[in-house]
Design goal:
Layout (H helix, E strand, L loop, with lengths): L1 H5 L6 H8 L9 H8 L9 H11 L4 H11 L2 H12 L3 E4 L4 E4 L3 E5 L1 E3 L5 E6 L2 E2 L7 E5 L7 E10 L2 E4 L3 E6 L17 E5 L4 E4 L4 E4 L1 E4 L4 E6 L2 E2 L7 E4 L8 E8 L4 E3 L3 E6 L36 E8 L11 H15 L3 E6 L3 H13 L5 E8 L2 E4 L2 E4 L14 E2 H10 L4 E7 L23 E5 L19 H9 L6 H12 L12 E4 L16 H13 L7 E4 L5 E10 L2 E10 L4 E9 L25 H5 L6 E6 L10 E10 L6 E8 L12
Parallel strand pairs: 2-10, 12-20, 21-22, 21-23, 23-27, 27-28
Antiparallel strand pairs: 1-4, 3-7, 5-6, 5-8, 8-9, 8-10, 11-14, 13-17, 15-16, 15-18, 18-19, 18-20, 24-25, 25-26, 28-29, 30-31, 31-32, 32-34, 33-35, 35-36
Helix pairs in contact: 2-5, 3-4, 5-6, 10-11
Organism: Turnix velox (Little buttonquail)
InterPro entries: Caspase-like_dom_sf, Caspase-related_regulators, DEATH-like_dom_sf, Ig-like_dom, Ig-like_dom_sf, Ig-like_fold, Ig_sub, Ig_sub2
GO molecular function, one term: cysteine-type endopeptidase activity
Length: 687
Amino acid sequence: RLCELLDNTGRGWRKLAEVAGAEKRFKCSAEELEMCSLKVLESHGSPTQCLLQLLAERDCTLKYLLGCLDRMGHTQACRVLSSAVQDMIRITVQPESQVVTEGMKVSLTCWATGPPGLMYQWFCGKQEVPGAMTPELVIDTAALLSQHEWYICRVSSGAAFTFSRWAHVQVEKNSSPSTASGYCPSMVGLQILQQPRPCRLAEGDTLALECRAIGNPPPQYQWFRNRRPMEGAQAPQLEVKLVTTAERGSYSCRVFNLFHEVWSQEVDVEIGEGPPRQTSTVPPPHLPPVCPSPGCPIHLSLPPLAATDKVALLMGNMHYLHHKQLKAPMVDVHALSALLRQLNFKVVSLLDLCKAEMEMAVNEFLLLLDEGVYGLLYYAGHGYENFGNSFMVPIDAPGAYTSAHCLCVQQVLQEMQQRRTGLNIFLLDMCRKRNLNDDTIPQVGALQVTANIVFGYATCADAEAYELSQGELSNGIFVTFLKRWLLQDEKITVLLDKVAEDMGTLEITRGRQALELRSNLSERRALTDPIRPPGRDESSARNLQWAKAHVLPESRHLRFECGVTVQLGFAAEFSNIMIIYTRVVAAPGDISQCEAKIIDIPEELNVDLKCTNKESPEEVGSPLAPSWSLGCSSSCLYSRLCGLQKLRQELAFTVCLQYRYHGMEDFVEERRRVSVGKPLIAKLNLR
């Protein structure tokens, strides 16, 4: 309909190209405009259709397109597009996961826009919540049957419907009830419910400390010994087996989320000779009851399978220089990162890598692998398959790329086998069409017969993998179904079979995309298998190597000469993407207005200055924006730094404070240069 309206009018597609081009990334070149105009020579060609395709590939939104038509004064085209947009159900406020104390009431909210008369229905797991048919769901945690429940909301209009994201409600028992009196977790901050306790142990005992907190967003943890961070100690419970005198000292836990941080009390752990003492504060696992009958048969079985460690490399390529740009990889990598961390994987998540960076990332991934380690590689982006070999396409691949410009998955597998891994998993979310530009048969060499290889392809051989056009932050088809099953305690091949069955129910891709599973796995290996490190030396070295790529700069406070204090905070979105936020926390009474901005960001990061110093994470293009937006402080300014692997030197920038005194019109400016070292993946020098 738009093509009919814009192809042959004075206020047509050329005017639309001119108005849309006011935004630099949507500006079309003379060659592109000529290509559009030549479409009139084709029997069913449309210049407007060609222009809309160009805008779509540059991530133009419906809202921006509607604004362009409005500025053109084309009321009929506006009416056509508006009616189409109104028929779509869009969730604008997603329910948020929360950690709360027992007995409290929790409120989950889901708001949507769309046709009049939207209907809401909340679910707990797969069961409808009776009477829960409003945007807000109030849960009395005292009535919950479990301390861990998952909730989701369905929004519908007639036959059309969409689902919100899952929200996890975790109920913590409060060891000191008085401290939580009147506490509401909706952005008040963080509160520690259970403090670690001092203890005295004998050598060879197990040290177990616990620190539990509530907050929104949910809290994260980092344990310290003698005020130094402990590698790999990022859980509420800290457990160290077979302690020696080297473990004695003062222990504390830093609890933090995006906006706040609190510290537990510091406790002393003494280790010396003497009889072992039970000091664990961690509740024992639920074990099956012991049979009391003397005649009860004893069943001998092999010890359960376990990994010596679990490591995952997740790569998503979106912003290609010479090929169609993608949207889903960012959301897919983020979703899988969160799920795999719940399974105790050490996760490295990277977006938009050139070939050299992908090769270096794989090399660092291989350094984390060793005998018995479960290695998982997930890739989302452009790809192809020739002669049975799969190739991942970097963002800098030329238009007519060949295997020389790409990474061969089978070569990565061969190198993983040399590390004697316990399980090799490849999840390839890419097309597998034949590359007609590449006739080279790669010489990969013979693979070892290890009976521990699993390939999960998002699509069949010689077929394409698709994205769903459901908004800016929707998962690809493969991950949409994969994340439903990933946490299940199933053999990995059984799990992928269930994903394949689910994908087969999607009508729009039936006959076009179907998951393909290839495996020679002979044991019941699962992603949920426990970790049993063979020795502390190997585990510590691996923890250290992984931790190098996940060190964030410490939050700090900057005090300026005018008396204003600015908090400078950092959040990791991916291993190579970091959010910096500034917040004015104190200002003299004679200052009426002030804000702190980040400027002078290193050029190699190629940061779009229009996407810095925004009032919400959503405005800087963060996929976490829906979970942050409800609690964003109005005084916070956010900047998103991508491609940290490109940093040549330490990250340095300027904090520019602009303020105005009462009764004055002009702003005064103060600047402070800040250096934060090499954050996250930049430490590994992937350039």
